[in-house]
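Example record

Each entry pairs one chain with its bound ligand, PTJ.
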Amino acid sequence: MNPNENHAEDIPTDHPRYLSLKHRHKIIEGMHNLVVAEAGLIAHGRGECFDYILSEKTNKFAKKAIKTAVALMLLAKHPIISVNGNTAALCAKDLAHLSSITQAQLEINLFYRKKGRIEAIKKLLENEGASRILGIEEDIMVEINELSSNRRRVDPNGINIADVVFVPLEDGDRTEALKKLGKKIIAVDLNPLSRTSIWADITIIDNIVRVIPQMIEVCRELKKKDKKSLKTILENYNNKNTIQEALNCIIKYLKSQKSKAFNILEN
Ligand code: PTJ
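Structure tokens for the complex follow.
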């Protein structure tokens, strides 16, 4: 590592953008360690932009989606958490925790299959407490015909047989393909208009760094409930409303920021 580079621990904790900078550094460090694809930096920047116009907080519609997603995972027969480079770099420890509390195995599934990346992500996840990670044995992988990207290669004991797949920070057509195979999809995506957001059964429109810790909290509560209560949560959820509310939130935020900016510009 270049000694002239800045590291996450060099960021002053009183910096007004401390958290945002810390997450940027995790992504940059992840890229140096092969965990994050080069394109992952661009994906992170796009996410930051949407996070900004969603007020960088977990909005009400995201809270509802989180609760419903956890209920669906607890009701599932074979839930799987799909892990890519950005997600691992930003929240490996929380992913390991979520996996153990929901009994959903982690499966590494990458869009950019640069040599050494799967091993780097596996090591990071294991160092943070994850076990029984899927998607690492190249010779046993099977292919999803409906998909042409690298993501088509899945573990026969994981995504291939899953009834519920949790897909944070996706890149497009996989959600559609997995849905055609009859699977239920939970997405985390800050862009409410991405194809993944539109196609998923439950779209959590919020930053992954806030989502996973909240899913763990909600899971602790929902594990005390019976199946009937969990099913009721699912019945009362409508993903179209989530997308609508997220877009309304963005429009409201932009209008308020426009008024503030013009107050300054005109005075
Ligand atoms: O590690 P790999 O090879 O599997 O590649 C992972 C990336 C993320 C590079 C790949 O999946 C990709 O190119 O994704 P896209 O098409 O850029 O889409 C990622 C989506 O995640 C975009 O809609 C972003 O707005 C969103 N996003 C980015 N960062 C976050 C996010 N959503 C939630 N939380 C974030 N921190």
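The first helix runs from residue 18 to 32.
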